[in-house]
Prior knowledge:
It is built from 8 helices and 14 strands. A hairpin with a 3-residue loop joins strand 13 and strand 14 (215-220). It folds into 2 domains: 2-119, Response regulator (Rossmann fold), CATH 3.40.50; 126-220, Arc Repressor Mutant, subunit A (Orthogonal Bundle), CATH 1.10.10.10. It is of the alpha/beta class. It has helices at 10-22, 33-42, 59-68, 84-92, 105-118, 152-162, 171-179, 189-200, and strands spanning 2-6, 26-30, 47-51, 53-54, 57-58, 75-79, 97-100, 126-129, 132-135, 140-143, 146-147, 168-170, 206-211, 215-220.
Amino acid sequence: MRVLLVEDDPSLGGFLLKALGEAGHAADRAGTLAEGRRLLAERTYDLLSLDLVLPDGSGLDFLAEVRGSGRSLPVLVLSSRATTPERVAGLDRGADDFLAKPFSLDEYLSRIRALLRRGGGRPDPVLRLGAVECDEAARRVSCAGRPVELTPKEFALLLLFLRSPGAVLSRTQVVNSVWQWTFDGYSNVVDVHVSSLRRKLQGSGLRFRSVPRVGYVLEEAAPGAAAEGE
């Protein structure tokens, strides 16, 4: 499970980040609302841990934005000002649980586990990376706001890479997942479909980087680098 931790205190944030990792969760920390917005736009998260007092705005307003965008991931709100009116305001804006600071690590992790169970561990239905958005349920893909027409296999291939951004996927892994047949080492079916995705996703800020004799990795292109691949 991947958790987004929006917490401006570097000491507490680092401590919780380490604890989440040791508990088996992938986690990212944002120290500001702006960084939180960027990470939510780029990655898919299973849970949001949100502080209410941040240097560039109110966590309550950010929570309203998250719910207003249609995201249904569970949200655990953290606050040192855990008054009844603040709790009510947080719950009214879409929080699933509220934890007052200071709190014990055991209780924090217990709340995380409970929310993930309650939410069924379901990720947000729309995967986002760079300028690409992929709605798995509706089977729609857009790039910088424009619709992108993909074949069923291209859609399945893109979905596979979007679920593992930055990870090297071998041709064998891709063929087994997308085509469900044994890779014999000679077919160029993966290369052909990756080439097609590169062409259709031009301007996305992403690239399918070739890893010689292995496969490909989908990643955000560095500034000034070619976005399509290498």
